[in-house]
Amino acid sequence: MSGLSGWEIGKTKMQLSIIEHGGHEYDLAVVLRDRVLRQPLGLQFTAEQLSAESSNVHVVGSIEDQIMACCVLAQRDQGWFQARQVAVDFDFQRCGYGQQLMEFAHRYVASIGATKIYCHSRDVAVPFYVRLGYQAVGEYFEEVSIQHVRMEKDLVQEI
Ligand SMILES: CC(C)(COP(=O)(O)OP(=O)(O)OC[C@H]1O[C@@H](n2cnc3c(N)ncnc32)[C@H](O)[C@@H]1OP(=O)(O)O)[C@@H](O)C(=O)NCCC(=O)NCCS
Prior knowledge:
The protein has 159 residues and is an alpha+beta fold.
């Protein structure tokens, strides 16, 4: 993407899709998650962590066949889903793609019965989730060595 400004990147259409756990696209999404979410913290995924995602919903965004955004949606009890591993590749951040990704994720989980969604938001990502209509609940806590807060959103209006 070198040579394109953020404005020009932001005009490029992102394709959104649900992918299978364990396939080639899943592997590419894990590479993206590793680069954006784990390496900056000096961490890496374990085989057990990735295996445990087999029942989750995996959403990816791609531009010209390059996966540059993703999230993982885990079904919880009583109509709740948890959004996890929300990542947009560095060159594509602050262009609106993260918002498009999550709006797609909200519509998808609402279509399969979710009424509420929550995430554990990093402190730096709180304004992103607030913009999406989430509200912070409770105290900050440490996860993967950084501060997080639970954020929740009612999905009834998405159905
Ligand atoms: C957080 C992240 C997913 C957001 O995706 P994005 O594509 O960069 O965000 P968008 O461009 O869709 O942002 C939509 C709106 O959210 C808000 N927002 C997003 N990032 C923000 C930030 N760092 N500071 C303040 N507001 C922010 C803004 O209101 C923005 O709209 P605007 O640019 O018109 O002002 C992405 O930046 C990312 O992957 N960051 C690193 C990993 C991470 O923190 N993931 C979240 C784990 S909980």
